């Protein structure tokens, strides 16, 4: 007859194995890890209000590094951002940026115009709206990365714009160029779209738990039979 001491010892050795936490293979042979970076840090942002405080850009002087983004937010009633040459205020520069007109009945517009700074050269800007009066000659101008010295200052650009009071400002034909029109707060993707993360069901512990209990019950039955 088998010693009851040996049977108890065998059961004691089997218990940790029977109730051990089951392990599962990692999908595709990968190893779980913590959160990782998804492309590095985001570019720095600077916000410019267009028409929030009357016919002006706020601020009207912006200093930005290459790669930084300028976010133009629009306020009543209907403004746009156009790039000009310093010596031709209120007229669009060939190949310059243009936000398109953004009508705003009240409050802040539900879209912005985002420009990424490509170099450190000055960007002279104006609003081309002419109703009920020309905005550019009224001083609605701005500059990104003004010269550190010399006669080409924002005040000089503003004075040259004021001198065109008898001539309406002009806007480029066509739609926005040189920047991106976006909606603040929009989701980065839509559910089900390619590249969107999808949820996966957590692995079930039911089958593993059932197998563990069945194994332990079988071991107990075998031990009882030996004792008998």
Automatic annotation (TrEMBL):
**Low complexity bias spans:** 182-207
Q: Where is this region: Disordered?
A: 167-207
Q: Which CDD domains does the entry link to?
A: Cupredoxin
> Is the keyword Metal-binding in the record?
no
**Coiled coil located at which positions?**
none
Signal peptide (from-to): 1-20
Keyword terms: Signal
Instruction: Tell me the superkingdom of the source.
Output: Eukaryota
* PANTHER family, A to Z: EXTRACELLULAR SERINE-RICH PROTEIN, SERINE-RICH PROTEIN, PUTATIVE-RELATED-RELATED
Q: What is this protein called?
A: Cupredoxin
